[in-house]
């Protein structure tokens, strides 16, 4: 079947088998290998992308279902070499170890901040319920999301999908890391 | 893993979908949010020959006011149910239960109708659907028919839906101003209910005038805790009368045994969670 999908701002028209999962289309046909697969059961969230502005597990959507839609992956977040504030906050707060869960964590964190621009710790944990991390114990991930919230413009999120103007100039967070 | 090959159609009306389902034969499947179906296909636990996708049918999405009932389109997502103002006002129990379903990504795709049609005994929307006396409107080659929730859920993953029928919408009698709470017990984040209790109560002065209590995962289908409902009605809405009524929660239940819990433990949970659910409903 022929589909037309906009991925990270570029429009692609491709032939896919109906059984092709969106994540495999993104990785193997579009080349967006930043989005990864971590499980067979829709549990881990590593494959999270935004589909028309909302987070989805791209292993649990068919590529044909994205026909006519807009997809944002982790590769579409940075602008002119400048990290998205949530990416920057994950870096600053040592919110990753092996990094496998990170693309999904960041995409879901952005979705969460769009719904709730200043989440408390509980709200961050609930918002990231669908993303599993085998390494960090989550503490620094929660810190990173709250740090990002402090630095992001109100309302920035999947709809805005752009870097806050002051993100590059801010000092690195002083929050220490439990894993360091 | 990737699913076995299948044909795929995405009709734009219910009539076309019913026709496509009939034409595709008995090994065809409906796909709604795909949040239960796609994991099953990926693990090759099922291999339908065709998928009929309901996502491009606008008439199946959204909630409308129909006098003394709300009508919820089967393709309304969990995310939309959580935020719908009509549901918040007239069927708060559904919104509260939906808050506990899965995780945000799954709630963006997964649908109310998909959960009802899937009929997982641990699914969180079945007991609320039963407690609120909802009716399922289904469409097939011979037209539409309406099935009350009490007759709709037949067994584990089995409903009154015939293979050539589609769940179109769910009619929810208005429970305006009723207190509501869904109390779910599970082991870890994102896990399914071991047992959960859906409770909604109408008070008149300080007295409980009406009560509906549904139990999740206390049988192969959702069940009503009728003895609790009866024990509540006409009583003052006090902690003491709630506690006394909740003692009846496990009466007549025959819950399944799995790696999580045996019969006694599930029955204990049903009593404790019923008390908590009604208390929380009254407080909310
Ligand atoms: C990680 C994870 C955690 C989850 N946790 C929970 C949880 O805690 N509680 C909970 O309740 N659910 C949970 N779910 C399931 C989720 O709620 C699903 O959205 C729901 O069970 C199925 O809805 P769907 O729209 O995705 O249906 P699909 O997966 O598309 O379909 C499910 C089944 O129903 C049939 N079907 C769907 N719609 C119709 C229709 N309109 N007419 C006829 N047949 C139809 C399909 O053919 C299929 O057999 C979880 C799912 C995942 C992946
Ligand atoms: S790969 Fe694990 S949820 Fe998608
Ligand atoms: S950093 Fe390794 S899984 Fe999260």
From TrEMBL, chain A:
Pathway membership, UniProt: Alkaloid degradation; nicotine degradation
Biased composition (Low complexity): 165-174
Amino acid composition bias (Basic and acidic residues), ranges on this chain: 152-164
Region (Disordered) residue spans: 152-180
Keywords for this protein: 2Fe-2S, Iron, Iron-sulfur, Metal-binding, Oxidoreductase
Record-level Gene Ontology MF annotations: 2 iron, 2 sulfur cluster binding; metal ion binding; oxidoreductase activity
PROSITE patterns recorded: 2FE2S_FER_2
InterPro entries given in the database record: 2Fe-2S-bd (IPR002888), 2Fe-2S-bd_dom_sf (IPR036884), 2Fe-2S_ferredoxin-like_sf (IPR036010), 2Fe-2S_ferredoxin-type (IPR001041), Beta-grasp_dom_sf (IPR012675), Diverse_Oxidoreductases (IPR051452)
Pfam families hit by this protein: Fer2 (PF00111), Fer2_2 (PF01799)
SUPFAM superfamilies, sorted: 2Fe-2S ferredoxin-like, CO dehydrogenase ISP C-domain like
Protein name listed in UniProt: Carbon monoxide dehydrogenase
Automatic annotation (TrEMBL), chain B:
Keyword Oxidoreductase: yes
Highest taxon of the lineage: Bacteria
Record keywords: FAD, Flavoprotein, Oxidoreductase
One Gene Ontology molecular-function label: FAD binding
Stored InterPro entries: CO_DH_flav_C (IPR005107), CO_DH_flav_C_dom_sf (IPR036683), Diverse_Substr_Oxidored (IPR051312), FAD-bd_PCMH (IPR016166), FAD-bd_PCMH-like_sf (IPR036318), FAD-bd_PCMH_sub1 (IPR016167), FAD-bd_PCMH_sub2 (IPR016169), Mopterin_DH_FAD-bd (IPR002346)
Pfam families in the record: CO_deh_flav_C, FAD_binding_5
Protein name (record): Carbon monoxide dehydrogenase
Organism the protein comes from: Prauserella muralis
